[in-house]
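hey all, quick one before standup. I had two proteins in the batch that finished overnight and I want to keep them in one place so we stop losing track of which output belongs to which input. First protein below, input sequence then structure tokens straight from the run.
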Amino acid sequence: MRDVLDHLQRLGMSGYEAKAYVALVAAGGPVNGYEVAKRSGVPRSTVYETLGKLVARGAAYEQRGPAGATGYLPLPPEALLDRMRREFDGSAEALRTALPAVVAQPEGHPIHDLKDGEAMLARAEDVVAGARRDLFLSVWPEELRRLGPHVRAAAERDVEVSVVSFGDPGEDGAGRVHRHRYSAPEAVLDELGYRLIVVVADRREAVVGGFGDGTAWGIYTADPAVALMAAEYVRQDIALQVLAEAVGAEEIDRLFAADPGLLRILGRA
């Protein structure tokens, strides 16, 4: 019940309106304001005002009884949800045209901190959902479980998706998925001490951050230079995985060991 009320409020109903609507749906027939107040917990002093708002938005209807008493019936849930979806889609489409006309030109490319895991994954979902041409991800299965449905949706709308996964992505992967085997994920985690996440859309916006020891931190940026560097990081890491698969990890190790310059760049000298 709590989830139902929360979702109705997210779709625009007040707390009292959500409670009154649920009470009407659960009643199975017309009920008066007194019954709605008793069933829903909406105060009697405000229940008729609340029912009036539901009627005004088309979520409930008045029914006159034989003695002139007023009962209330809900708009059936499926019809209500269809109406809300139409209204939301219509508003979103109107805002798509109207909002850019009032947006001031930014003085610089936006960048902001992401102070916890929920904020970081929610912003990463935004980046994935906004991709139109290409999408690069360097991610661990723990975070890919959250992002997977959005990544699959991007692939389905013909975004070119490239993923490097530090572990088995299972069914959460989409597009071109490369397992990070060189170095092994366990070795990477031991060296860094946290799970790095990089998500880049169209090489114009990116989320970069880390998860470790019960904490998470990161940034969002729409600086195209930073987004390009993040995309190149993922592309180079994918290229290394493909090369290791083609010639073998031992051959890569031999080449590194024979070249002091490569060892120095890798921090192993």
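OK second protein, same deal, sequence then tokens:
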Amino acid sequence: MEHPARTLTARLLASRSLPRTDPQVRRALVDEAFRAELEARLAAVGLQLIDNPYAEHVAVALADDVHEPVFGAGREYAASNIGLTRDQIALLVIIWALIVLPKRERQVNRQKLIDDGQHDMFGQEAPLPHGEEVAGSLSEASLLADFAPVLGHKTYVQGKLLSRLAQLGFIERRGGLIFEGPLLDVLLDYRLLADRIIHGTLGEVLAQAGHPLPDSDGADEGL
């Protein structure tokens, strides 16, 4: 007989991420006992469930206390534990800033409208906004024009950087546009990155390139 928590654990390990709309995932998000069993199964093998209510997917990642035993003390993984190079990480952060930050602003604004009752008299019971209504995309040609000169030439960025990020599930490339992949929002910590990017050097670089970022004030309420 199928055991739902066992099955969901195996599916997460096999797929790395699953959409929040998946029936078993939805159960894990609302059923405390089921979630506790899922988390216990993951913890038994040194993993944890990563769930950001604003993201469209959930994922699994190493538990904090096993980073050292798994990757060793040599710090080879200090920049990335999935083998990303420095320029791939740089491009990943740029794409995250250009897609996720504006998306989060739209999500928060939509949620505020719902909470104010302007869209639905029962708005406070509505799920957080996801999907096409808040999704964004980025022109690949524009990204290359603005950042390929500092990351390498166009062919290198397309063939080595973007292709690797797509392969790992951080982005999706369709029709000359870059879309958020299943792991982009859920694995990069918004609370850690947003303020540093918006008010840091990268925010100034993006603004100079014609990509001004939204203000981070209140953009992570409820997380």
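Flagging for whoever picks this up: Residues 47 and 64 are 9 Å apart (CA to CA). DSSP finds ten helices and six strands in the chain.
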